[in-house]
Write a structure and sequence with these properties.
The protein is mainly beta. It has strands at residues 2-6, 9-12, 17-24, 33-38, 45-50, 56-58, 66-71, 76-81, 90-96, 99-100, 104-109. The protein is built from no helices and eleven strands. The strands form two sheets. Strands 2, 4, 5, 6, 9, 10 and 11 form a seven-stranded mixed sheet that branches. Strands 1-3-8-7 form a four-stranded antiparallel sheet, with no helix packed on it.
Length: 110
């Protein structure tokens, strides 16, 4: 299994970004996936997860702003991020079991 994340960038506070994690080696509908993030000097934290059956969970600070979903047609896992805040600035990673994709940088300016 390989994961390729993209979609990061620089955005002003209140803006939106959509991260995509393209999955190869497995059909995305069959697995559970997660997005993590790590800011400088901080531990990596779970941002959002989605199960095989589509049940989702979120970090409290992103509830109501972020949405994780699967795109079966593109075999990818998406993270829609709205109303971004400077504290969302971090390197974002997608994860499947013990496999991690390379991170994509999200920077939110105030």
């Amino acid at each position: 299994v390989q994961l390729q994340a993209s979609g990061g960038g620089l955005v002003q506070a209140g803006g939106s970004l959509r991260l995509a994690c393209v999955v190869s080696g497995i059909t995305v509908s069959r697995g559970a996936y997660a997005w993590y993030r790590q800011a400088p000097g901080r531990q990596r934290e779970l941002v959002a997860g989605i199960t095989h059956g589509g049940i989702t969970n979120y970090l409290d600070s992103v509830k109501g702003r972020f949405t994780i979903s699967k795109d079966n047609a593109q075999n990818s896992v998406l993270l829609q991020m709205n109303n971004l805040k400077p504290e969302d600035t971090a390197l974002y990673f997608c994860q499947y079991r013990t496999t991690w994709g390379a991170g994509t940088q999200v920077t939110v300016s105030s």
